[in-house]
Amino acid sequence: MDSASFLAIFDAEHDALLDASARAGVAAPVPSCPEWNVGDLLYHLYEVQYLWNRITSERRDGFEGMKMPERPADEHLIDLVRGEHAGYTAMLRAFPASTPIATWTGPQTLAWLVRRMAQETAVHRVDAQLAAGDVGVIDAELASDGIDEFLEFFLNTREGTVGGSVHIHCTDVAGEWTVRPVDGASGGPGSGFDVTREHLKGDAAIRGTANDILMALWRRGPLSTCDVVGDADVAARFVAASSLA
Questions:
Q1: What percent of the residues of the chain are helix, what percent strand, and what percent coil, each to the nearest 5?
Q2: Structurally, how many domains does the chain consist of?
Q3: CA-to-CA separations, 11 to 50, 76, 99, 205, in angstroms, rounded
Q4: Are 52 and 117 in contact (CB under 8 A)?
């Protein structure tokens, strides 16, 4: 998918998230984020867009020194998020996808950020729908790309040794990865594992729809929705290994 496609997805997922939030109500708990209610989810979404908007438009080198506006009353949160999104996406469309930006992964381009926004908002749309009592599902092609992004940028070894390799295989769309632990890695995003996009036998295999695999990786759904072959303990430790805070 190109940046224009990701921007369209970002808009659609954002609208669906706000719709679910309105139906749930800002005081409703978010089952997939136990410490949050819908108001907290909305303010998090606002924070993300506010900060990235200014990182990009002001050509900042990082988040240091940036301050958030005071959180408004809960009844104003949906309008606040909708307004920030309108300005943010207008800015994203105003710059070429190749525009360099600073990120927590190091130097990237605007294309990286647009993809990140589409993926993050899709997962949080599921959070909002769960709060509203719905079962949210992410489109298979987008979910497969989300698995790829997760494996590239969000793996780490906070929880300790996984103890084996893992093969991940989408059953509904294209998407296969083999993930091997790297001895002596220090942890942190992207370290601790070698990821290849290929079919190889692992100590454990995780097979399922792209949505079910992505939800398990982001711990929005149980690993039991997927078919685990081989060493189930390796698969469970792998899913638990990444810090999502």
A1: 50, 15, 40
A2: 2
A3: 16, 20, 20, 34
A4: yes
Splitting the chain (245 residues) into consecutive groups of 10 residues, what average pLDDT does each group show?
Answer: 96 98 98 95 96 89 82 95 97 95 93 98 98 96 98 77 93 96 54 85 97 97 97 94 74
Position 204, amino acid: A
Closest to 231 in 3D by CA, of 194, 187, 181: 181
pLDDT at 188: 44
Copy the structure tokens of residue 104: 């927590």
pLDDT at 160: 63
Total residue length of the chain:
245
Tokens of 150: 């997760």
With beta carbons less than 8 A apart as the criterion, state whether 90 and 102 touch: no
Radius of gyration of the chain (CA): 18
Q: What is the pLDDT of residue 68?
A: 86
- Same domain assignment for residues 19 and 114: yes
In a domain, 245, yes or no: no
Question: Do 16 and 123 share a structural domain?
Answer: yes
pLDDT on residue 63: 75
With beta carbons less than 8 A apart as the criterion, state whether 100 and 107 touch: yes
Position 185 scores a pLDDT of 46
Name all contacts of 21-29 with Cβ < 8 Å and 24+ positions apart.
21/78, 21/128, 21/131, 21/132, 22/78, 23/132, 24/128, 24/131, 24/132, 24/133, 26/74, 26/75, 26/77, 26/78, 27/74, 28/131, 28/132, 29/131
Within this chain, do residues 9 and 127 fall inside the same structural domain, yes or no? yes
Domain span holding position 211: 140-240
